[in-house]
Amino acid sequence: MSRLMHVTSGPYAPPAPARELTATSADGARLHIEVHGPKDAPAVVLAHGWTCSTAFWAAQIRELTADHRVIAYDQRGHGRSPASPACSADALADDLEAVLRATLAPGEKAVIAGHSMGGMTVMAASTRPAFREHAAAVLLCSTGSSRLVVESTVVPLRPGRLRTWLTKHILGARAPLGPVTPVARAILKYGTMGPGSAPHMVEACARIVHACPRKVRYAWSQVLDLLDLDHGVRELAVPTAIVVGTADRLTPPVHAHTLAAALPHCLGVTELPGLGHMTPIEAPGPVTGKIRELVTRYTRSTTYTQVKEGA
């Protein structure tokens, strides 16, 4: 499990959940889940990315919990979910299925938002029975389905074998990240965020990423290096919106447009000028607004709305 190093004040400090529970995945892996907001409100499920945790979604959780039931979980080995020897796209799909079954009633629909590896989780689960039962709509943030290392622009060189080799070894480095220092913040900002990201955003991201155990970070980097979920994209039949930062070096906009061309029901690509890979933190308003839009259009409960209005 990760050390808990998230910020403790400000808009990116994780709010206390209404309840916490543990789901058990198909191979026995245990997954930490947090549930926020009214129990009968429309449901939103949040899947974070590589080296992150539920703390990554703090801004979305804060804004949505007044009138949504927000379900956030730690991917295996991240946050409060113990590490597992099984690291694969299938394991990610198993885990999302386990979370959906543990938190949603039979037939209940939810908007599912995935950032980076969380978006890849959604693609991997697109054909799974629990996903098809519960997914009303999807938001894919800063993600891709294949060619992740080849398309990355973290290394400022022309595309080619040298850039690919260097990128693979940088992203797959076994070295510990160490404490959060000014140099560490500068490196993380360059690789994962837009040049205009405010210091408090960088600090929030750095604390979350540096909390991820070295072995977990390395194990999942090997999965992402070889990832090919193009088939899952073609099977993702629910309405799907895409958000990407134009300065994203890890999953550049080419991925977003490739996804849009392959999705059966794409609602369009929203490009956020000058922003990097960490869009839910760099642009909390637009990302939260897109989630609200999907909920309103595809899942909002008439009964819940009437109860709120009559309260």
Automatic annotation (TrEMBL):
Protein name (Swiss-Prot/TrEMBL): Alpha/beta hydrolase
Short name of one Pfam family: Abhydrolase_6
Species this protein is from: Streptomyces caeruleatus
Ranges where the AB hydrolase-1 domain occurs: 44-285
InterPro entries linked: AB_hydrolase_1 (IPR000073), AB_hydrolase_fold (IPR029058), AB_hydrolase_sf (IPR050266)
Keyword RNA-binding carried by entry: no
GO CC term (a single one): membrane
An example Gene Ontology molecular-function term: hydrolase activity
Keywords annotated in UniProt: Hydrolase
